[in-house]
Every structure is written in C-alpha cells, then in structure tokens.
Design a protein that fits this description.
alpha/beta, Rossmann fold, seven-stranded mixed β-sheet, 11 helices, 9 strands, disordered C terminus
C-alpha cells in the first residue's frame, strides 16, 4: 500500500478510537460469527496473532476458546492498541495472583505495527486471526507476511468485506460530483487466489450479506465514520460535503427505504487456510528443510 494511503488509514482509525466501540456493531457481530467457524477446527495454538485487533473485540473470544494461548494484539493505530491493553492486559501487581489461579498473566502482548511488515520472526505463531482488516491493507503483502510468521500447519482465519458492501450508498452517490464516496473491496475469488499465491494451502471461503438499518442517512454515515471506515482516498473530495450534494445524496438514498428504515448492506467474506509444510522462494523454487536424527512429523486437524 502506498505510504500516503497508509498514513491516511492510520489517522482515520486513530481518530475513531473514542467512538469505535459504540459504532462497531458489525465488527462485533462478525467477530462472533468468525469465532463460530472455529467450532469445527481442532487446534491447540500456543501463540495467536490478532492481526488488526481494533479495540480488542477478538481478545475475549480467543481467550475463552484457547485459555492457555498467548495473544499478540496488533494494530496499525496506536490508540487502538492502547485501548486493547487497558481493557485486557493484566494490571501491575496481579501476576502472582493470576499465576496461582492458573491463569496466564502475560497472555496478552499489545503491538503497534504494520500488518504488511510484521515485527515477528519466521514461524513464530500457530494461528493468525484477522477480523475485517484485509480490506485496509495490500492483501498480497499482508498475506505474504502472515504466511512467513505462521508455523507449518498453522491456521489463518479471517473475515473481510466484499465488493457488494455499502451498495446502497454507492448507488446513491453515483451522480453526485465525480468523486468516489465508497471504497472498492476485493472479490472473494480474488482473495482466494491471493491466499494460494502467498503459500497458504487448502483455502475455504464463504460469503454472506449482513444488513443494518437506520432511521436516516446521518445514522448510516455516523457509524461508518465512527469506526474510521469512511472513504480513504489519495485523490478524492477535499473537505466536507456541500449542502446541495448532501441533499442529492439523501434524496437518492431514500429510494432504498423499506418499512420506515434505511438499509446499509455489507458483503462479509469468511475464509481460512493453512500454512503449507514447505516454503517457496519468490521465483517459485521450493524450500525443503532437512533435519538429522529422529524423524518428526507435523499434525494438524480440521483440514
């Protein structure tokens, strides 16, 4: 991702920290549904990377499912990481008590870092969890980094947004002013191809539509801005929307009103894939690791 766009994304999410929790109904609901995908997967990870943790919605879900795992909570926005740390890191002085109680006092490690340049060593995590994050990064770079840090046999589980997301807002804004008002999101099949190109095996993908409803257009846009997910473009409208443009957008959006409510539809893509037991170089040549002594194998369920 170009640095200018990355800085814009970081700024948008830094500004949204205070309003994120109250506006992120979709993120919380998708996190719960993403957790449900783990029901059929047998895995006992020791180290989990929450890639794009936001304010930490995934942390209690992961802790409940894998109480002995260490969680690395990573986000590009420092404010998001700080919020996660305040909510879920063990308070100072509680470590001995938690250890006596059989809990893991150091199970959460907050990290402010770039998903496209992870500050982690190769093969250092057993599972990567990523909830509604891939649409904000360069997917090829991010997936290459995820593959690098996953141990062979490790799991990558994610959700993302598809191209049908905010279709009502996109349709209502097509004749406004020549500027893009809705981000473009990657098709599910292209994400699947990117997983394979990154060296992740046996990808499984599915998609659903989730529709939120609002009393008016201001509510729709308030939630989008509240989570920092408003359009982030290097070439787009500068400044606030004018009165005429706003009136036109409101008029256009009213065509979608049903039963007294305005819909905002999200195409949510879910997927998982596994880190292959072999690596490949950039030119496609395969890396085969040889080890002397006793032969050992890798085992991972849920394929």
């Amino acid at each position: 991702m170009p640095e200018a766009r990355k800085r814009a994304v970081r700024r948008a999410f830094e500004r949204a920290v205070a309003t994120y929790a109250q506006s992120a109904f979709l993120q919380q609901e998708v996190a719960r549904r993403l957790d449900g995908h783990l029901e059929e997967i047998r895995l006992a990870p020791k180290c989990i990377l929450d890639a794009g943790c936001g304010t930490g919605f995934g942390v209690p879900l992961l802790r409940q499912r894998y109480p002995q795992a260490r969680i690395l909570a990573l986000d590009l926005a420092h404010g998001m990481v700080a919020s996660t740390r305040r909510q879920y890191a063990a308070p100072a002085g509680w470590h001995k008590w938690l250890h006596w109680a059989g809990l893991q006092p150091s199970s959460l490690l907050p990290l402010c870092a770039d998903l496209e340049q992870l500050p982690l060593t190769r093969h250092s995590v057993d599972m990567v969890w990523s909830n509604l994050v891939l649409q904000w990064v360069d997917p090829l770079r991010a997936l290459a980094e995820i593959r690098r840090v996953l141990r062979p046999g490790g799991l990558f589980l994610f959700s993302s947004l598809g191209p049908d997301t905010l279709r009502e807002l996109r349709a209502a804004s097509t004749d406004l002013d020549g500027h893009a008002h809705v981000n473009r999101f990657t098709d599910m099949h292209d994400v699947g191809d990117a997983l394979v190109r990154a060296g992740l095996a046996n990808p499984v993908m599915e998609m659903e539509h989730i529709t939120l409803t609002y009393a008016d257009l201001r509510g729709v846009l308030a939630d989008i801005r509240g989570i920092g997910a408003h359009t982030v473009l290097t070439q787009g409208r500068a400044g606030l929307m004018g009165k005429q443009v706003w009136a036109r957008l409101s008029h256009n959006y009213e065509a979608f009103r049903r039963d007294g409510r305005l819909p905002a539809t999200y195409e949510v893509v879910y997927g998982h894939a596994w880190a292959a037991h072999t690596d490949r170089l950039a030119d496609g040549r395969q890396i085969i690791q040889l080890q002397r002594g006793k032969r050992e194998g890798w085992a991972s369920g849920g394929r």
